[in-house]
Amino acid sequence: MHIVHLISVHPAFDVRIFHKEAKTLVKVGYNVVLIAQHTKEEIVDGVRIVPLPKPRNRFDRMTRVVWKLSILALRERADVYHFHDPELIPVGLILKLFGRKVIYDVHEDVPEQILNKDWVGNSIARKIVSL
């Protein structure tokens, strides 16, 4: 089985995603790919890392980098896509439209975080959280 982890915010070697999830899946025989911000394509502990460009700013990360991640994800033709960042929900929906199995694994209290971000206006934040 081919499993792809998609991350746009967390570092490539995030303890939970890389060390606890991806490496464990490799140990039990799965083909695991991690698409994340990284400097080069390489295989580390059996996990193939596909690099994403480093974003210039938050807007760049949420547009250009997420677009690039979407293309790379579709190219993988994985059995399962496992993503970890709320900004990747549109990517997950696109993958679902293509009939792919998708896991959304959020680690944080996202509604609370959105309410506490000063770059998101209060009225916008409340509308987002209400969804």
Automatic annotation (TrEMBL):
Residue span, Glycosyltransferase subfamily 4-like N-terminal domain: 21-113
Short name of any one Pfam family annotated for the protein: Glyco_trans_4_4
Protein name as it appears in the record: Glycosyltransferase subfamily 4-like N-terminal domain-containing protein
